[in-house]
Amino acid sequence: MAQVPGEVDNMEGLPAPNNNNPVARWESPDRGWEREQPMACTAAASLFECSRIKALADEREAVQKKTFTKWVNSHLARIGCHIGDLYADLRDGFVLTRLLEVLSGEQLPRPTRGRMRIHSLENVDKGAAVLKEQRVHLENVGSHDIVDGNHRLTLGLVWTIILRFQIQVIKIETEDNRETRSAKDALLLWCQMKTAGYPEVNIQNFTTSWRDGLAFNALIHRHRPDLVDFSKLTKSNANYNLQRAFRTAEQHLGLARLLDPEDVNMEAPDEKSIITYVVSFYHYFSKMKALAVEGKRIGKVLDQVLEVGKIIERYEELAAELLAWIHRTVGLISNQKFANSLSGVQQQLQAFTAYCTLEKPVKFQEKGNLEVLLFSIQSKLRACNRRLYVPRDGCGIWDIDKAWGQLEKAEHEREAALRAELIRQEKLELLAQRFDHKVAMRESWLNENQRLVSQDNFGYELPAVEAAMKKHEAIEADIAAYEERVQGVAELAQALAAEGYYDARRVAAQRDSVLRQWALLTGLVGARRTRLEQNLALQKVFQEMVYMVDWMEEMQVGATWGPRWVWCARRGGRGIGTERVVRDMKRERETERDKEKSEKERVRDRDREID
């Protein structure tokens, strides 16, 4: 079987070579039953045990084949290739060469396109030569074994490739003695450190420690807690745990699903298959961690690790991002469309202030960092006696300064426009408050006068009606004078609408309400005048009737005066004495009437006081 020098030598499942038996190195310990069969199967119990061991070995081989096939397809997918049967599709050596080309990142010799056995052997030899260049020594295996489709040796070859390109790079140094562990031990230690503290997760190996699926979910939760709710997982629901972890890794992490729940939740899970899958988690999360800390350590890393070319790439990337932010921000703050309310404009002003005090200083610091970065580039180039770096068009410091000047100009215009709009909205708000105050006063006045003119307490005598008429005329004069104030409300509403006040509908509704009440009041006043005039005319008729009754009574009195009254009446006049008598009689009757009226008013006043 193939060996990877160094840390790969300690991987389990790779026994020491046996020179007497070339195939023995590729055999796993589970296949020892073949050598011990004549002696171990002498009894029925031994036969059952051997059958059980063989079944487990076959099952493990099937899991390895499926896992390795998926692993190979996950890498071949980069170049649009796919295999269905691991044993058959690797026989011609073409897929093997393409796989090694993807893993090594190097351009390999083109494989031979023939269909004969000699062509397949040639392609496999090319792959073996590539592995030899990678310091991977293949022992006890030849190209003919792969071309013949030998199951165990084909699996061993793929496992050797996995060791070299996936597992060998894993190294973890302990803090106590700085001891460098083997690849397998380093991967196991990494899993233990990442799952430390998770309940019911105790990783001691790459077999049974993963059966319940909690270890896979713990690895995902440690790095992406938003993907897994670990508190809801139970040890007893192994299939669900495994299915959840595999689906999450495939959908959210982009990791190929190399295993199925039934491949892990079994009596003796295959170690190599689990290692192959777990190492994909290691590489993914290691790469994610490197990306996360890159921004925080960039200052130190630039001086210690990055080459001048990488620094230049970083500078151009940051310069492009800063310029993109400046252009985007200029476009946003140049928009002079403001909220149509005082609170909205105040919020926009607060947002602009927050931008000036929080967001902009960060970008200004980035601008300063870019200048320092460019100075560092030029210093390194000078130290190396190389030509100074000239940023490409649009990424120079002068381009950034020009764009920054445009940004500050746009900020000044934005602030001035915001404050002008704030003053306008404040004036509108004061005008709206004045409108509301006037509307409240007008509605109160209109309601009071509507109530006043709705009362028809004109009195029952002519003087009272005449007094009510004079009072009504005074009310009409007051209402006529108040019309200008009502119109003032309408003018305020029109001014608010003309300025685009945000609550113009409410203002218009209140204005219409005031105008309706005004129209109602004027109608009530006109109707009350009509009724009052009718009552006044009626009282005059009553007065004339009273005069007629008085005259008739005087005539009766005159009849008792004798011939002188008759003579005066016949001469067409009453005479001086008669007129005096009539006046005296009228005066006495009016005096009596005034007394009766005074008595009625006293009674009315007393009733009011009682009320």
UniProtKB/TrEMBL annotation:
Coiled coil: 465-499
Protein keywords: Actin-binding, Coiled coil, Repeat
Domain named Calponin-homology (CH): residues: 62-166, 181-286
InterPro entries per record: Actinin_actin-bd_CS, CH_dom, CH_dom_sf, Spectrin/alpha-actinin, Spectrin_repeat
Region (Disordered): 1-35, 584-611
GO molecular function, one term: actin binding
PANTHER family given in the database record: SPECTRIN/FILAMIN RELATED CYTOSKELETAL PROTEIN (PTHR11915)
Name of the protein described by the UniProt record: Calponin-homology (CH) domain-containing protein
Source species: Rhinolophus ferrumequinum (Greater horseshoe bat)
